[in-house]
Description:
The protein has 282 residues and is α+β, with helices and mostly antiparallel strands. The protein has two domains: 5-78, no CATH class; 109-281, Rossmann fold (3-Layer(aba) Sandwich), CATH 3.40.50. It has helices spanning 8-19, 55-62, 116-125, 144-149, 163-171, 177-180, 191-194, 222-231, 248-264, and strands spanning 5-6, 24-27, 36-40, 44-46, 52-54, 69-72, 75-78, 80-83, 88-93, 100-103, 106-107, 134-137, 155-160, 184-188, 203-208, 232-241, 267-272, 277-281. A hairpin with a 2-residue loop joins strand 10 (100-103) and strand 11.
Amino acid sequence: xxxxxxxxxxxxxxxxxxxxxxxxxxxxxxxxxxxxxxxxxxxxxxxxxxxxxxxxxxxxxxxxxxxxxxxxxxxxxxxxxxxxxxxxxxxxxxxxxxxxxxxxxxxxxxxxxxxxxxxxxxxxxxxxxxxxxxxxxxxxxxxxxxxxxxxxxxxxxxxxxxxxxxxxxxxxxxxxxxxxxxxxxxxxxxxxxxxxxxxxxxxxxxxxxxxxxxxxxxxxxxxxxxxxxxxxxxxxxxxxxxxxxxxxxxxxxxxxxxxxxxxxxxxxxxxxxxxxxxxxxx
Length: 282
């Protein structure tokens, strides 16, 4: 099995079972992907690989509601990495489904009235049809978009600026298909630079889900949109995640993005409010 991973949600299940004097309980060690049986003893929880996680560690995990922990040799280690290159801190933030990633304290997925898994499904659905052929995912993050697109696409190319993010992905059970699927191709580097490597019309669809405007304004520029237009085939589709259109900042950025996408050559640019973005056609 992969390395066990726990958050306060799973710790609560274990502590409840101890209170009820259970000797075994079913719990997820993969952050809600699946469950397995574990034995409960006076010392702690006996995991399937034989290691014992002490109750003191489980209580600590339970009290850390904004963190995720890998378990090794009976010890809990917080998933937290710091990028010296970009001076950013990355960590996993648990939800009732897939975790999101905190980038210097900012969540990279919707977690209010939504969850990271549903957020990803909304983005894929916003393309208007299931991704087929070659798909470009401009910003990898935890890889959820690339993994979902790869279910139907023949090839998904995804870019990640910071190699430190890959370290977080390797600790996240929900990100493992990034490293196991043959039809996902990962590039480390700024997508502005990586996209220059691709020929005209290289992709059948593009999913552009950049960081917030104030963190990566260049990825909202007409110059970058022109590159997206160049590498998209004729009649190809681009979904561009921008932000909540019901909020003032989201509405402002959406209007600006629509104007610049049209300037770059895209046609029929229309809002996809449920997915917090816009769809554009070439």
